[in-house]
Write a structure and sequence with these properties.
Length: about 280
């Protein structure tokens, strides 16, 4: 894929955030999961940093290196025809120089979008100052644009997910941060941890820009989110954890009863999976 084709994919992904239908992304963590998602007809692939880290033996929270994360992103981007947006946690660094390097590395890996979190550690004390986070977003946009591929930035705040600060002010602080990130050039604004329908609807109106919601237990359905005006819904590490849950159920059934019903129920046929991965036209 040349730079011109990559730039076209970036624009394609950007437009998907303004389409009449919600952009739904069951996040992938390796080539096989990405191919399955693509074969189902989803218009883009979003990676999940947590699941990629887990698959390589790391806990979540920027414990994996940037190079290892991008190694898998590059394999995925090379294996699919649709645009790929990479979850890069907090950018694998703290300085603007780090952000520039990460943005350029994301482009080099073949991705056209990037998630950026505003916490760098495992507690609320690591939340990046709003102004600095805005500068990081500007730097990512500028650095990637200098290579000819302006990355589609999905700017995330963890105020609800972690959670951070008093409950009574979370909505206002989330809006303040997300609006600042939009002003800095973010294409989509991500508020994981918000599940209440009324709060989601209020966020959509308050930020006035494409909003990404993480779907999990207790979240509204995709149709309901679309009616609220949510532009993007993603599963995060949910699909990968569900897959590991299936593996655990298979193992438990084998150990406890000696049967293997859960092994066969819904499995992709061997020949079908092999054929899916033999494709070399990307």
């Amino acid at each position: 894929m040349n730079i011109q084709q990559q730039a076209q994919k970036a624009e394609q992904l950007r437009k998907l955030h303004h389409a009449s239908h919600i952009l739904t992304l069951p996040n992938a963590w390796d080539v096989a999961s990405a191919r399955v998602v693509e074969e189902l007809g989803f218009p883009a692939i979003a990676t999940t940093s947590a699941a990629i880290a887990t698959s390589l033996g790391y806990p979540d929270g920027q414990r994996i290196s940037r190079d290892e994360m991008l190694g898998m992103v590059a394999r995925i981007a090379k294996a699919v025809r649709v645009p790929v947006t990479a979850d890069m946690e907090a950018g694998y660094g703290t300085t603007l120089e780090d952000m520039a390097e990460t943005a350029k590395a994301v482009v080099a890996a073949g991705a056209v979008g990037m998630n950026l979190e505003d916490v760098t550690g495992r507690d609320e004390s690591s939340q990046v100052d709003t102004a600095l986070q805005g500068e990081k977003i500007r730097t990512i946009r500028k650095a990637s644009a200098s290579l000819g591929v302006p990355l589609v930035v999905n700017a995330r705040t963890d105020i609800y997910l972690m959670p951070i600060g008093p409950a009574e002010s979370r909505f206002e602080r989330t809006v303040e941060r997300l609006c600042a990130y939009r002003e800095a050039g973010a294409d989509c604004l991500f508020a994981p941890g918000v599940r209440d329908a009324d709060t989601i609807a209020k966020l959509v109106k308050a930020v006035g820009a494409p909003l990404n919601i993480l779907v999990t237990t207790g979240s509204p359905s995709i149709k309901e989110l679309e009616k609220m005006g949510v532009a993007r819904a993603s599963t995060g590490s949910g699909a990968a954890r569900a897959t590991l849950g299936l593996l655990r159920r298979i193992g438990k059934e084998l150990m406890e009863t000696g049967t293997y019903t859960s092994l066969l129920d819904g499995a992709i046929p061997f020949a079908e999976l092999n054929k899916m991965l033999e494709r070399q036209d990307c």
